[in-house]
Structure formats: structure tokens, C-alpha cells
Amino acid sequence: MINSTYYSSPIGEILLVSKDNNLIGAWFEGQKHFLSTINEELMENEDEILFKAKSWLSRYFSGEKPNINELDLKPEGTDFRCDVWHILCEIPYGETVTYKEIADKIAQKRGIDKMSAQAVGGAVGHNPISIIIPCHRVVGSDGSLTGYAGGLDKKIFLLKHENPEF
């Protein structure tokens, strides 16, 4: 069964989705790829993981730095996308990395010379668990703020929320 509930954040409604007591989705209303990994009907029901996710987000937006490991995350995607999302989970609060840096890590992990930063960008853009898996912390090689599935205004808000000097 796929459970869902909404969380009202300072930057918009977020649909939280769980399956088998794992968080599998957190999308801003109307964002790109909204519900793209869900093939079953949603049941509005706040189970334990959704309750924890709402608490995690409330603490995050109140200025705390909740640990991502507090939540059982199980984003659904290809092995490549899951590898990218795992790297996103390692980006420290208030810091950023580039698509190229992630591509270099993936290449090293896979034992290949080079990985496309553009392919990494596609995986980052399809992250199904916004904010919690911090795809907003990825920037262009020159530090530019490239796209964000939830909207560039939300990315800017999140980066400034974590680091006011950004």
C-alpha cells in the first residue's frame, strides 16, 4: 500500500509518499517529475514514516539540522540514479557540490575514466525525495544556480536557509 500526506512548508505544499514504511517520495506541488516514480494509487494515510518525515521537515525549516539517517529512505530509480542520490545524501548541510564533482565520484566508483556531468544533472533532477535528499545543494561548475525541479526560487530559498551567506 502506498500512503501519502501533505506537509505545508514555508515554500509550498509537499506531498510525502511512503511504501512499506519507507519514504519513497517528497514532491513540491506541481514540480517537474511530480509522482513520476509512483505507479500505484495513493491512499491518504499518515503512517509512522510520514509522521517522522513531517517532523524532520519541521525541524529543518525551524533552523535545526536533522540527520538524514533518521528516516528510512527508499527512492525508486535506476542503479545510476540511486548512486547519484546516495552521493547527494553525503553533501553536508549548508554546502554545495558541482555536477562535475558528482560525475567524478561516480566514475571513480564505477572504475571508468569519465562520467557525464549532464547525465548526473538528469539524475539529480529526477530525485524523488526533495529537500531530504538535498539535490538543491548541487550547482554548476562555476557556482551558478542551474535548474531545480521545484523551481529556482525554492532552490535559492533552501540554499540561503542553510547558509545565509550564500
Descriptive notes:
By secondary structure, the protein is α/β, with parallel strands linked by helices. It folds into 2 domains: 2-70, 2-Layer Sandwich (Double Stranded RNA Binding Domain), CATH 3.30.160.70; 79-162, Orthogonal Bundle (Arc Repressor Mutant, subunit A), CATH 1.10.10. Helix content is 34%, strand content 18%. It has 5 helices and 6 strands; from the N terminus they run ββββααβααβα. The protein has helices at residues 48-61, 79-88, 99-110, 117-125, 152-162, and strands spanning 2-9, 12-19, 22-28, 42-44, 97-98, 138-139. The protein has a 4-stranded mixed β-sheet, covered by helices on one side. Strand 1 and strand 2 (12-19) form a beta hairpin. Helix 2 (79-88) crosses helix 4 (117-125) and helix 3 (99-110) packs across helix 4. The model has no long low-confidence stretch (mean pLDDT 93).
CATH class of the largest domain: Mainly Alpha
Please state the overall shape, judged from the principal axes of the Cα atoms: globular
CATH superfamily of the largest domain: Winged helix-like DNA-binding domain superfamily/Winged helix DNA-binding domain
Give the C-alpha Rg: 15 Å
The domain count comes to 2
Tally of helical segments = 5
CATH names the topology of the largest domain as Arc Repressor Mutant, subunit A
Strand order of the largest sheet: 3-2-1-4
Question: In the CATH hierarchy, what is the architecture of the largest domain at level 2?
Answer: Orthogonal Bundle
How much of the sequence is in beta strands? Answer: 15-25%
Percentage of helical residues?
25-40%
| Count of extended strands | 6
Largest β-sheet summary: 4 strands, mixed
